[in-house]
From TrEMBL:
This is DUF2252 domain-containing protein. PANTHER family: DUF2252 DOMAIN-CONTAINING PROTEIN (PTHR39441:SF1). It comes from Liquorilactobacillus sucicola DSM 21376 = JCM 15457. It holds the Pfam family DUF2252. InterPro entries: DUF2252. It comes from the Bacteria. The lineage of its organism: Bacteria, Bacillati, Bacillota, Bacilli, Lactobacillales.
C-alpha cells in the first residue's frame, strides 16, 4: 500500500523513459493481476463510530443540517463519508502505482468553472482529499458513485452493472489516448465545454443536449452581480453586508474578522502577481460563516466580502483545509492533533496540477492553527442535477467523468505505468472492477441503514 501524509511531488518524480515506465506497468500487472486487484476484501469496522469521530470535530450547531443532507439517499450518504471509504480502501488490494489523486472523484465532484481567460471549462473541481496514492482508488470512488446515484435515480440494476463496465472501459481508453499523445499535446489539452458539447451531439439522441445547454447558460450567468444580489444587502448605514441565515450563514465576531484581515495579506502572497496587485486595492468589509455541500458541510467555511477603492465588490470563499482522511485513520485521536498548517497549500497545489486551468484567485491562508484555501465564490460555476438526468444522458455523463479522471491522472509522470498495467489487463478488467463496485456499494447501503438508525434513535 502507498502511504501518504503530505503532498510530496517527489514521490511521482521518475527518471525513466515512457517505454520503460510502460514496461514497469506490465510487470506490476504480473505481480498484481486484475483478479487480485479486484478481489473484494471484507471490511471490519464500525461505520457509525468512524462517522461520529469525524462529526465531533465539526461545528455542532450544523450537525442536524449535515445529517439531514447525508440521509437524503445512499449517494448523499456516500458523498459525506469519504473518510469511511478511505478506511475501507486501506484493506483492499493495491496496484502500488502512485499518481496524484483527486481523492474524492465521485460524479458529483465534476462541474463547470471559468478559466483565467473566462472560457467555460468542465472538469474535476474538488481537491480537498488530493494526495499521492494508488490510481485505482480514484476509479473505485467514481464507479461506486455511478452505481449509487444511478440506483437512487431508479435505473435498473442490470443496466447499471453494464454501465460500470463501460465507465471502466472509458477510463482505460482515455489512458491509452493520453499515452498516445506527446507531452506538450497533453499539457495543452483543455476540457473546454465546446468540446463536451460536440461529443454530446455526436453520441446522444438529444436528451442530454438541452440539459447541457441549460447548465451552460446558468453557469455563464453565475457572476459577481448575481452573488451580490443573492447573498448581500445594504444595511441601515448604506453599507453592503452579507445576509444572515442561521445556522447555515452567521456573521463572525469582530475578533475573528480581524484575524481574517491579517491572514488576507498572507493569502495575497499565494496568488499570481497580477491578482496580488489587484487585491492590493481591496479591503475586507464583512465576513460570514457559510456552509456548503455535503462532505464539507459542518467544517469551517466562510465568505469574505471585499470592497475596492472604487467602492466595487468581490466575494471570496474560504474553506477549511483538513488533512486528507487517510492521514488520521483510524480516527482514534482528535483531528487537531494531526492538523498541518500547509493543508491549504496542498489542495491548491494539487488543483493547479490536475486542472488544465484554474481559478486565478485560488490561494491559501492560515488563521490561527487552522489552514484554509481560497477561491472566487460561484464565478461561472455550475453542475448537472444528477437526479434529473435521463438514462442516455447519465451514461454519457459518467463516461465523460471517467475520461476526465484518466487525463487528470496523466498529469503525473508515473501515469505510463498505469498504461502498461491496463494494456496487460485488457477487457476483463472492466467486468471485474464492476463486480467489486457492486459488492462495495452493498456495504455502503448497509452503513447507510445503520447510520440512519443511529440518527433516528439519538
Amino acid at each position: 500500500m502507498i502511504e501518504k501524509k503530505i503532498l510530496d511531488i517527489d514521490q511521482i518524480n521518475v527518471s525513466k523513459t515512457k517505454e520503460e515506465l510502460i514496461e514497469i506497468g506490465r510487470k506490476k500487472y504480473q505481480a498484481v493481476p486484475s483478479e487480485k486487484l479486484t478481489a473484494y476484501q471484507d471490511v471490519k469496522r464500525n461505520a457509525v463510530n468512524i462517522i461520529k469521530s469525524v462529526e465531533k470535530n465539526l461545528i455542532s450547531e450544523l450537525l442536524p443540517l449535515r445529517r439531514e443532507r447525508m440521509l437524503k439517499n445512499s449517494f448523499s450518504f456516500y458523498r459525506g463519508t469519504a473518510g469511511l471509504m478511505d478506511f475501507d480502501l486501506a484493506a483492499q488490494i493495491h496496484s502500488n502505482i502512485p499518481v496524484l489523486l483527486c481523492g474524492d472523484a465521485h460524479i458529483g465532484n465534476y462541474g463547470f468553472y471559468a478559466s483565467p481567460e473566462r472560457q467555460l471549462l468542465f472538469d474535476l473541481n474538488d481537491f480537498d482529499e488530493a494526495r499521492i496514492g494508488n490510481w485505482e482508488s480514484d476509479l473505485r470512488r467514481l464507479l461506486v458513485s455511478v452505481y449509487l446515484a444511478g440506483r437512487d435515480n431508479g435505473f435498473k440494476d442490470k443496466k447499471l452493472r453494464k454501465l460500470l463496465g463501460k465507465v471502466t472501459a472509458a477510463y482505460r481508453a482515455a489512458i491509452a489516448q493520453a499515452g498516445s499523445m506527446n507531452l506538450m499535446e497533453r499539457f495543452h489539452l483543455s476540457p473546454k465545454v465546446r468540446l463536451l458539447a460536440e461529443t454530446v451531439r455526436e453520441q446522444t439522441d438529444g436528451d442530454f443536449e438541452k440539459p447541457l445547454a441549460d447548465i451552460i447558460g446558468k453557469a455563464t450567468k453565475n457572476d459577481l452581480g448575481k452573488v451580490l444580489k443573492k447573498f448581500t444587502m445594504l444595511n441601515s448605514n448604506g453599507e453592503r453586508v452579507f445576509i444572515e441565515d442561521t445556522p447555515r450563514s452567521v456573521h463572525v465576531s469582530k475578533k475573528q474578522m480581524q484575524k481574517f484581515t491579517v491572514a488576507f495579506k498572507d493569502y495575497r502572497t499565494t496568488v499570481p502577481e497580477r491578482i496580488k496587485v489587484l487585491l492590493m486595492q481591496y479591503r475586507i468589509t464583512d465576513v460570514i460563516r457559510h456552509s456548503v455541500g455535503v462532505g464539507s458541510f459542518g467544517t469551517r467555511c466562510y465568505l469574505l466580502l471585499l470592497t475596492a477603492n472604487d467602492s466595487s465588490h468581490l466575494v471570496l470563499q474560504v474553506k477549511e483545509a483538513l488533512p486528507t482522511r487517510d492521514s488520521f485513520i483510524p480516527l482514534k485521536l482528535d483531528i487537531d492533533l494531526h492538523r498541518e498548517i500547509g493543508e491549504g497549500n496542498r489542495i491548491i497545489k494539487a488543483q493547479k496540477i490536475m486542472q488544465s486551468a484554474s481559478d486565478p484567485f485560488l490561494g491559501s491562508m492560515n488563521v490561527g492553527q487552522r489552514s484554509y484555501y481560497v477561491r472566487q465564490f460561484r464565478d461561472m460555476k455550475g453542475s448537472f442535477d444528477l437526479e434529473k438526468m435521463g438514462w442516455q444522458g447519465y451514461k454519457l455523463y459518467t463516461e465523460v467523468c471517467a475520461l476526465l479522471l484518466a487525463f487528470s491522472h496523466f498529469h503525473s509522470p508515473t501515469a505510463p505505468i498505469i498504461q502498461g498495467y491496463l494494456e496487460e489487463a485488457g477487457d476483463d478488467f472492466d467486468e471485474l472492477m464492476a463486480a467489486w463496485t457492486v459488492k462495495y456499494a452493498q456495504q455502503v447501503s448497509d452503513d447507510y441503514k445503520k447510520y440512519k438508525k443511529y440518527v433516528v434513535e439519538n
